[in-house]
Amino acid sequence: MKANTINPKISRRKFVALSSASSALLLIGCVPSTGKDKVVNLADGGVETALNQFISINSEGLITLYNHRPEMGQGTFQSIPMILAEELDADISQVKIVQSEANSSLYGRQMVVGSHSIQSEFMNCRRMGAAAKDMLVRAAAETWGVQPADVKAKNGMVTANQSGKTLTYGELVAKAAKLKAPENPKLKSVKEFRTIGGSFPRADIPLKTDGSAKFGIDIQVPGMLYASVQRSPVFEGKVVSFNKEEVLKMPGVTHVLKTSRDLFGHREGVAVLGESYWAAYQGRKALKIAWDNRGLDKISSETIRNDYLKASREPGDVLHEKGDADGAFRNASEVIEAIYEMPYQAHVPMEPMNAVVDVRADSAEFWGSTQNPNGTRSYLARFLNLPEEKVKINYTFMGGGFGRRSRTDVAEEAADLSKKSGRPVKVIWTRKDDQTAGPFRAASVNTCKAVLKQGKIEALEHKVVAQEIQNQSGSNNKAGRQLMGGVNTEYAIPNVSVKGVLQKHHVPISYWRAVYHSTNPFAHESFIDELAVKAGRDPLEFRLEMMQDHKRFKRVLEIVDEVFNWKDKPEGVGRGLAIAERSGAHFAMMIDVERNGKGVKVKKITTVVDLGICINPDTVKAQTEGSIAMGLGAALYGLTIDKGAIVEQNWHQYPLLRIGQCPEIETYIVKSDAEPDGAGESGLPTVAPALANAIYDLTGKRIRRLPLDLEKLS
To answer: Which residues have C-beta within 8 Å of that of residue 310, sequence separation ≥ 6?
Structure first.
């Protein structure tokens, strides 16, 4: 069975116009309605706006899915067509996917973050597929003079049960297009699924292996200039002077311009524009800039750490509360306490940050790899003082996102330089640019304390000290609930308090894969483990006892115990456990470590994930393995700051996890009838705590500060 194909982007207006050119075409769409989106037959002509998605079937039986979410390697270009093909009873090879334009008024939220794509599109795609099949079945029944119950659809064909006559979907679309779409099409039961749950080759893989896939960095437009920007070496530094005339004399250099970006504090720089990237970059290297560091060169990792540790002694803002934790602490004879620390982290996508923007007198156009088409359009419209409909967004495949490409700062730079130069401009950041300018994953200090009573947790407090992405300016002095992401409040503990202490710093932060779920579980699950040891309890049984009323956490823990033999630990192996939830998915992770003569080595990582209905197991396993590798890298490496600047300026100082460092990974997917949860970040939150707990089991040493050096452990 062949995989579905991918077509280039096409506007809705053009798509509908092309569709209308053929009367033999079935066009089904979803429009917002009260409660759930409504499925409609677009051939009726009554729907002009607010299409979330739509599909068409032409006279040759080719099914086109009009997709409005970017693809960045997460596999949705395969998984979403699988959902459609399932309910439509079509072969996946009959489905091609067309990328939509960026338009929030038509498609709503198009941003791809938090593993929400499948969750958001699951029911719409099912209902569109089921509605189209219903209309095709009715058209066939009418043709043969039988009842719809007397015909059956399968693999893009409809067959009469009695006569055995067949018609392809393509042969039926003309008649089906004249029928009204059912308001509540019948959906299959999970037991009837034939495509969902199967593993099919991804349609984007051939394009990415033969070089035909277009990424942002591949974009070229007529008359385009290239830009390379030398930014202030410290956060929010300013330009005092630079040797403009000298650099302008260099071959291929066309402009030398002061520029800035305001999304993460006002950080200035000097951009060199040229007819080629080489010319622009050589001009940049020749720049001599005097900087005003504004006293920010006194910032370091140690000053930030000291600020955070001091702040951790503040009462904090209550983000979640159950029972009376403070009262339990006041009355306790012993309070167990621990402090956990995590560093800033870079996103390090494989494709360098880039954007092309062409600013004209009354319009603008963007080309690039972005997780946030709507936000890019809205931001450019505000920045350029244009109506949104005058800003066109063309988005491509992405060479990694991890939250970094949800921000619009690189588009801001390109727009600023295009406006100043009067030509389309392509900005390309070097890896050093991205590594040192940020934004980054937030550093944090977590303090945890608890009271044990008869071997059980009587009270627990978890306090998070960190910057908050949604409140970086600190205009609201109170910590928001975003800070408590990943703190597991599902444990059956009678008295619980989760608090936040908002920090304000010049270091820019943003969304990073799993966001605060990538940091807080390290503290929470490490502390749960410490409490299990203090209580003299087995770490898995300790957790399981507190999750008896939580079906999903209970199940993943039981599988770790029963399927992967938690207690049957080989000699010389340290074994650690952690559980977490992210984007609705619940998972448990078991890590085995051993000594290897020069420290500690990660031997195997086993993860059990319950994410509801699994669309494509291969994709889920790939996403889980990728997030585990990223989580392991974040446990082993981190960014440090000295004199207001990032020390680790490229991959030789901040390495990605090498394949030889990656242990064996086994992923167990729990069978479920529940609607799908997110898979793209499901392996990451548990890596650091499970690793730290395994190291303790092997060495007796508690890891409370990341990153850790495995070679220094014994």
So the answer is: none
* Residue 32: Cβ within 10 Å count: 12
Q: Are the CB atoms for 182 and 39 separated by under 8 Å? A: yes
Backbone angles phi, psi at 473, to 5 degrees: -75, -20
Sign of the alpha-carbon dihedral angle for 650, 651, 656, 661 = negative
**pLDDT by residue (tens digit) across 86-129?**
999 999 989 988 777 777 666 667 777 766 788 888 998 899 89
Q: For residue 22, give both structure tokens.
A: 């053929």
The whole-angstrom separation of Cα 671 and Cα 617 is 11
Strands 95-99, 5-7: pairing is: parallel
Burial track 63-89 (b if 16+ CB lie within 10 A, e otherwise): bbbbbbbbbbbbbbbbbbbbbbbbbbb
| Torsion angles phi and psi, residue 387, rounded to 5 | -65, 145
Element (H, E) at 86: helix 76-88
- Quote the CA–CA distance of 688 and 4 in Å, as a whole number: 37
> Dihedral of the CA atoms 515, 516, 520, 525 (nearest 10)?
-50
Kindly tell me if the per-residue pLDDT of 351 is higher than 80. Answer: yes
Average pLDDT value for residue range 630-635 = 97
The answer to whether 239 and 509 have CB atoms below 8 angstroms apart is no
At 390, which amino acid appears?
A: K
Q: Which domains does the chain have, with CATH numbers?
A: 5-210 (3.30.365.10), 216-295+353-428 (3.30.365.10), 302-343+441-712 (3.30.365.10)
Angle (deg, nearest 10), helices 117-144 and 169-176 = 80
SS3 686: coil
Q: What is the pLDDT of residues 356-390, one digit of tens each?
A: 999 999 999 999 999 999 999 999 999 999 999 99
Q: How far apart are CA 82 and CA 89, in angstroms?
A: 10
Question: Scanning the structure block, which residue is given the tokens 């938690």?
Answer: 566
Token pair, residue 294, equals 């504004």
Task: Give buried/exposed letters for 465-491 (b at 16+ CB in 10 A, else e).
Answer: bbbbbebbeeeeeebeebbbbbbbbeb
Residue matched to tokens 């830009």: 227
Coil, strand or helix: which one is 159?
Answer: strand
Strand partners, 694: none
Contact, 351 vs 407, CB < 8 A?
Answer: no
- The CA-atom distances, in angstroms, between 631 and each of 31, 605, 684 are 39, 12, 5
